[in-house]
Specification:
By secondary structure, the chain is an alpha/beta fold. It has four domains: 14-176 and 315-339, Up-down Bundle (ABC transporter transmembrane region fold); 177-290; 355-434 and 516-600, P-loop containing nucleotide triphosphate hydrolases (Rossmann fold), CATH 3.40.50.300; 444-513, P-loop containing nucleotide triphosphate hydrolases (Rossmann fold, 3-Layer(aba) Sandwich). 63% of the residues lie in helices and 9% in strands. It has helices at residues 3-6, 24-31, 35-66, 73-120, 125-130, 133-175, 177-224, 226-231, 235-287, 293-335, 398-405, 428-433, 449-453, 462-471, 475-480, 498-512, 528-542, 554-559, 577-583, 586-594, and strands at 357-364, 375-382, 387-391, 413-418, 421-422, 435-438, 516-520, 546-550, 562-567, 570-575. The strands form two sheets. Strands 6-7-8-3-9-10 form a six-stranded mixed sheet, with helices on both faces. Strands 2-1-4-5 form a four-stranded antiparallel sheet, covered by helices on one side. Strand 9 (562-567) and strand 10 form a beta hairpin. Helix 3 runs antiparallel to helix 4 (73-120), helix 3 (35-66) packs parallel to helix 6 (133-175) and helix 4 (73-120) packs antiparallel against helix 6 (133-175). The longest helix has 53 residues, at 235-287. The protein is elongated, with a radius of gyration of 36 Å. It starts with a helix and ends in a 6-residue tail after the last helix. The protein binds adenosine-5'-triphosphate (ATP). Adenosine-5'-triphosphate binds at residues 129, 366, 368-369, 372, 374, 392, 394-400. Its main location: membrane.
Length: 600
């Protein structure tokens, strides 16, 4: 056993340990889906362990029979061939074991990732309110990496070392029962301190890593705020603050170095001291003729193997618990059931669609904020082809209407119907196919312009896409993209302006060909030209569709058939721009604030 291996760094982001190994059952079930590979891995494991143990036996033969004057040269050749054969079997077996065990590890992780993602895609938005996407994505990467480690390494290490330890001890007893009895006491004395120091060193290395990360944080902060630091003349103070961190990191590193220095001495002393004692004891046996030289050699090698196995096994349990922790967290994601599920026998929505949407006495509270009535006895029927503009102060419940119309939540009281069908008795996928959403901020995926546009309708041809782009006033800038529809959009792919992104969202909605349009107008100000292009596109889009629009633009409000004014989850006023402005109520106040200067 070498101290380098003992002081290995831990996995980057260790998952919390579980208290029991129970959650590992899930990994077992996953791995058992590949029985052929499991058998192959186990056979390879047995073969390699057995051939490892056969090596000392081979040496024993060679030393006893071969390293003597006048040895039988033919027999010597056979023994060496036997030893070489073992080495070949060990080499091939090890390669097979590595291949099959790693294959299982990677496959199990791939399957778990696929299943988790498939389940996440079924879950409603409420789930992601209480479970941050960042946290979930770390489970998908670091937790699965831990599982990969468990299946691909830990379990194999465990089984291999159990076989080696048990087989090795049996062989030792067979060779020299008395000496083995002494070894049984001696091995823990050697392995125990090594394992203990190994853990200490590892803990210190971890805190040393943390400190290095701390240095990175300060550097990033100071470099990012360089102008402020210099403008306020804080260079000396920043240098002092940085200096403290660097020195603290050095001190931690020093502790690690000292511990490792001590540990190296202990390891060398214990391992070689142990071997020396063993050989000494053996030499006495050889002198008295009780034992052969080859036997001593075999005992030393086997004892080394057993000690190594014991050391490795002492590490395994912690790793398994960590794996169980990771499996438990992933299992939670796998078992999570959506609150909104399709009914067993969903009612089909009428075909062809009419596009009517009706809220009746709807009462709704968000599960995470049960004290607030987001919708309070809300009733509204939007007739096919009608455009209803919704206005109201922030928090009035406007966006909530959209979420309920798409059945992302079910109301606590009252009903929501599309074309007369209760949403709770219909399939959410069918409900969502009836509406096209234009959100405030167009989400662009890291994909081509083409795929971004046809996100809601993958069968759309390029012709359909260009037609939608024309309707959305997006043709011009799309044609100007360096590689046309193949241009990669997304984070930094092509820098699109706010207005262009909105027009992409509109084109996407056009391609969706849905009878109901849910439009959340962007509040961010666009320049006049952009505003005109977006407005034109929206006007075309709203035509012939039932439209529910959270309105921020006066033009949209004027074009609406009806305006409803919401406050505190209910409708407080209804009418047209003219009638509501004259009424001098909430609408008139909002209009004055929001559209001041434009209204006139
Ligand atoms: N995901 C959520 N979890 C808990 N409470 C929420 C959630 N979303 C909205 N709410 C609350 O529900 C009420 C209605 O919110 P909603 O988003 O529908 O208002 P809004 O009129 O669309 O506001 P804004 O114009 O600011 O978007 C508010 O009190 C809000 O704080």
């Amino acid at each position: 056993m070498d101290e380098e291996t003992l002081a290995q760094e831990p996995i980057a982001e260790p998952a919390p340990r579980a208290r029991t190994l129970g959650p590992l059952r899930m990994i077992w079930r996953e791995a058992m889906k590949y029985p052929g590979r499991m058998v192959a891995a186990c056979v390879a494991l047995l073969v390699t362990s057995a051939s490892t143990l056969a090596i000392p036996a081979g040496f024993k033969l060679i030393i006893d029979k071969g390293f003597a004057q006048g040895a039988d040269v033919d027999a010597l050749g056979r023994w060496f061939q036997y030893l070489l054969l073992i080495v070949v079997v060990l080499a091939i077996g090890t390669a097979c074991r590595f291949y099959f065990v790693s294959w299982l590890g990677e496959r199990v992780v791939a399957d778990i990732r696929l299943r988790v993602q498939a389940n996440l895609l079924r879950l409603p938005p409420s789930f992601f309110e209480s479970n941050s996407p960042k946290e979930i994505s770390s489970r998908m990467t670091s937790d699965t990496a831990v599982i990969e480690q468990v299946v691909g390494t830990t379990v194999s290490v465990a089984l291999r070392n159990v076989i080696t330890a048990v087989g090795g001890l049996a062989y030792l007893f067979f060779l020299a029962p008395k000496l083995t009895a002494i070894l049984m006491v001696g091995i823990p004395l050697v392995v125990g301190p090594i394992v203990f120091f190994g853990r200490r060193v590892r803990n210190v290395s971890r805190s040393s890593q943390d400190r290095v990360a701390g240095i990175g944080v300060i550097v990033a902060e100071v470099l990012g705020a360089m102008k402020i630091v210099q403008a306020f003349g804080q260079e000396t103070r920043e240098m002092a603050r940085f200096g403290e961190r660097v020195e603290a990191t050095f001190q931690t590193a020093l502790r690690r170095i000292s511990l490792r220095a001590v540990m190296t001495a202990i390891v060398i002393f214990l391992v070689f001291g142990g071997i020396t004692m063993l050989v000494w004891e053996g030499a006495l046996g050889v002198a008295s003729g009780a034992i052969s030289g080859g036997t001593i050699f075999a005992i030393v090698i086997t004892a080394g193997l057993v000690a190594g196995a014991a050391g490795a096994l002492s590490e395994v349990y912690g790793d398994l618990l960590r794996g169980a922790g990771a499996a438990g967290r992933l299992n939670e994601l796998l078992r999570e059931e959506p609150d909104i599920a399709p009914p067993v026998r969903p009612t089909a929505l009428p075909v062809p669609p009419r596009g009517q949407i009706a809220f009746q006495n709807v009462v709704f509270r968000y599960p995470s904020r049960p004290e607030v009535l987001a919708l309070n006895d809300f009733s509204l029927t939007v007739e096919p082809g009608e455009t209803v503009a919704i206005v109201g102060p922030s928090g009035a419940g406007k966006s909530t209407l959209f979420l309920l119309a798409q059945r992302f939540y079910d109301p606590h009281g009252g009903t929501v119907r599309i074309d007369g069908v209760l949403l709770t008795s219909a399939d959410p996928a069918e409900i969502r196919a009836r509406s096209a959403l234009v959100p405030q901020d167009a989400t662009l995926f890291a994909a081509s312009a083409r795929d971004n546009l046809r996100y809601g309708n993958w069968s759309a041809s390029d012709e359909d896409i260009w037609e939608a782009a024309r309707t959305a006033n997006a043709e011009g800038f799309l044609r100007d993209l360096p590689e046309g529809l193949d241009t990669f959009l997304g984070e930094d792919g092509a820098r699109l302006s706010g207005g262009q992104r909105q027009r992409i969202a509109i084109a996407r909605a056009v391609l969706r060909k849905a009878p109901i349009l849910l439009l959340d107008e962007a509040t961010s100000a666009l320049d006049a030209e952009s505003e005109r292009l977006v407005q034109e596109a929206l006007d075309r889009l709203m035509k012939e569709r039932t439209t529910l629009v959270i309105a921020h633009r006066l033009a949209t409000i004027r074009a609406a058939d009806r305006i409803i004014v919401m406050d505190g989850g209910r409708i407080v006023e209804q009418g047209t721009h003219a009638s509501l402005s004259a009424a001098d109520g909430l609408y008139a106040r909002l209009a004055k604030l929001q559209f001041e200067g434009i209204v006139a």
